[in-house]
Amino acid sequence: MSKKTYLFLILILGSLTALGPFSIDMYLPGFPAIAKDLHTTPARVSLSLSGFFIGISVGQLLYGPLLDRFGRKKPLYIGLIVYILASAGCAFTQTIDGLIFMRVVQAIGSCAAAVASIAMVRDLFPVKDNAKVFSLLLLVVGASPMIAPTLGGYVTAAFGWQAVFVILMGMGIVILISVFLWLPASYQPDRSISLKPKPILLNFWSILREPQFYTYAFTSAIAFSGLFAYVSGSPILFMEVFHTDEKVYGWIFAFLSVGFIGSSQVNTLLLRKYRSEQIVNVALIGQVIIALTFLVVAMNGWLTLPTTLMFLFLFLCCIGFTNPNAAALSLAPFAKNAGSASALMGALQMGMGTLISVFISMFEEPSAIPMVLGMAGSASLALLVLLIGRRTITTQVDVPQDADAAMLH
């Protein structure tokens, strides 16, 4: 494979991987404008974000077997077409219920891109290059939260929130054309793979019964739901409580993303000296302390914009250490069915994210308390699950070298 072909494939796979994060982050600055146009509240608009998380959670479990049974490209085509049509539906909807429904459908479509991109790394590149490719895709995913909300803020201010979904639709069209013209067929369909619910559910159940999986997968999912609390609550906090405009909110979101992205990159350096288990322990304790302190400050009315930014930055740094290590530890025991384990782990993360975002949307009055309460509760519960679950692990399996794949979910 030539260097030009190598980089071109990375670019296409990176665009597939970034589609989901862009779809989550780019419309966040438009929450107040959407609420005004659709005659509802920003808290109810946040249910459209919950709907997206539901779609991703369901989609990850659906596409794994489909991509193995029918090959990579056919399910990917269908998913991208669904995504394009749903993006158009989001742009032209006239009701909040219509937006919520379209976001669920949009998420199910985007899942095909995310799951296929991870599978195709293993198809298209030598095993020895997998970790390097996954790391490059992680940089693309990491850049998305910095670019998407900032771009979304300017687009919303200039053209309205509907234009954001028109842009996302355009992205889907460009990616679909690129996949059709330039992405090679990387996998022969396996007709022996059953799509019947019973064998699929039995496979997932066998994974869920593994002590190391359920300990670290639930720890990772619950701790990571603190990020969903932030994503769901931050538009209301910054634009309704601190009264920043769409553009400033986009820059704030980009700045705070540096904490999460930067710590996940520093994590690769720490792994040269420390084990994943050690990093999870320290980072999760730090996450709990920061979140509980943040909650005390918020409940006493002492929050200012600078202190809020400080607490959020530190909290997201901790997640950047906790999540990749806990996710990698949960996948470590699986060699044969790592794809199913990865899909189940991703579904758990999105499921927890959905619950916490729905919790935040229940509070109609603009306040920092719901978001901070969700962050503190998720961190504390994750630490409790880790302490209890570790007692059930008799023999712990070390983290595989290409565990960067876990982070992409």
TrEMBL record:
Keywords, sorted A to Z: Cell membrane, Membrane, Transmembrane, Transmembrane helix, Transport
Record-linked InterPro entries: Efflux_drug-R_Bcr/CmlA (IPR004812), MFS (IPR011701), MFS_dom (IPR020846), MFS_trans_sf (IPR036259)
Spans through the membrane: 45-64, 76-94, 100-121, 133-155, 161-183, 213-231, 251-270, 282-303, 309-331, 343-363, 369-388
Lipid bilayer topology: Multi-pass membrane protein
Domain of life of the organism encoding this protein: Bacteria
Domain called Major facilitator superfamily (MFS) profile: residue spans: 6-392
Matching PROSITE patterns: MFS
Keyword match Nucleotide-binding: no
PANTHER family membership: MAJOR FACILITATOR SUPERFAMILY, POLYAMINE TRANSPORTER 2-RELATED
Protein name, UniProt field: Multidrug effflux MFS transporter
Organism: Larkinella insperata
